[in-house]
Amino acid sequence: MPNANGRDGAVVVSFDLDGVIMQNPFDKGVTPHILGCLRASRDLLGLPVEEADRRGRTAIREAWGRRAASGEFVSCYDWDGIYEEVSRGFGGAPTPDVSELVRAYCEVDGMISLLPRAHSGLERLRAAGLRVVAITNGYHAYQWPVLQSLGVAEYFESVVTPEAAGFAKPDPRLFESVLGLAAHVGDNLIHDVLGANLAGLRSVWLREGLPVEVARLPTSERASSSALRDHARLALETSPYVQYHPEAVLESSLPDAVVLDADEAADVLLQWYG
Fold first, then answer.
1. Which residues are registered as beta bridge partners of 127?
2. Alpha carbons 45 and 77: distance in angstroms, whole number
């Protein structure tokens, strides 16, 4: 895959993947599989399934949180490393390769999905001549197989990931690694909107559960509404990520546009750059 470079003056825009373009197989497939492996560990063996899985999920969250608290944000998304650490902590065996699990579960019905109107939005951007990249905190080995299986890998000139770039969202350096990038679309107010804002980009917040009074407004008016500001404040205050990012204050985390799906995102981007 070529790197985005702003060549020929074409506008470059980026999308987050999970919750914006696709549903990955972690919730339905990968994580339950790992929890099943953990049940056979020394410290969980013999416990009721519900209790063993509760302890396993708690340990995974805590391992993620320790990395975030120490500022090791790239390693927060190294699921091979996290699962292995948790298994060792319970006295268990090595866990399966996560990329292999991802590929396997991509072949199981119902494990992955393309989100509504994602395909049409990407197609319209390509037809208009905009260049599209993905900027995600998911490692390449976990994300690329899903894009391929869903038939949308061809729309992305590159997939920018933490383990390759050395930074994770919302670090602006991850966005700045894409030459010529003008705007970013994502569903996470901290990772996507704040990160894009810090990098000097236009930010588009894809928010499926918008309050009715915001959703019924034209896309050009949503971001400036007082109801959106109140909604963003609540989203920020309740985000599990805010404790790790003191820079995530409301004024720096407000988007330039708010959309319900990737097709509406295409509407906005084409109004700006089409």
1. none
2. 27
